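check this:
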Amino acid sequence: MQYFSPAKLNLFLKIWGKRFDNFHELTTLYQAIDFGDTLSLKNSMKDSLSSNVNELLSPSNLIWKSLEIFRRETQIHQPVSWHLNKSIPLQSGLGGGSSNAATALYALNEHFQTHIPITTLQLWAREIGSDVPFFFSSGTALGKGRGEHLFSIKKLNHKHKYVLYLDHQGIPTEKAYQSLLPQDYSTGNHNACFYGENDLEKSVFRIRTDLKNKKHMLERMWSPFESHVLMSGSGATLFVCYPEELEQDSKVSSQIHSLIKQTQGIPVSRLYREPHWYSLKQSTYKNSPLECFQPQI
């Protein structure tokens, strides 16, 4: 059986400072999108994992952690064979590894017909990583703490469309956070909404000036439209957000889609777990990214 493993965007990300446990206190708005990987499993004589990306075949892959937790909780030890078809770039800020781990838990539950509630799978997911529980949410959620404390939102009131600009160099999450300076932290009301801001851009752009230049280039190219450019998570993916209503004007819509094609962007839509996105048919999602757009500065 094959399962869809969706990417996520951070529509905003505020960092409030470092905690006593050396993690950072944050507030973020997660949004699942219809771009991602596919994961399949079947019974086997021994556990195995294959993938189109060799770097993912190590024992540290979070899929193995999901399998370990599932076996501990269910006492089902039947060996399984996994295949991961990767489209989400590594270290891209799109939550690929976290999504794969959540999808693995869901797939095991379906495969062995254990009927474990989604709420229980979400609790198990907290053992794996900060972003993993999000992939058992409604599809839009406010994250607090390290990002693991989730408050699902039915649907956002504002209607926007998104365009991804991938970058295959990647940014290690740990490096992005370690490079934060005290002046990078946000101050003020932790409960306010900061749509369109990402505090990690400050540290990442010091490491990767090319990404900073790429963002400025995209801002100039998209300036004729009511849009903004943002980095997702710890990078290195940038994305453009623009109001859906702009496409009601056929001329403007044509200009937007021409720009997307020119810049090799990937248009994506919001994704909601109705009833479960993991079981989406392949024709309904995107998992074949174009070449990364590298603007000439």
Notes: The chain has one domain: 2-284. Helices lie at 62-74, 96-111, 118-125, 173-178, 200-207, 209-221, 250-262. The chain is about 25% helix and 25% strand.
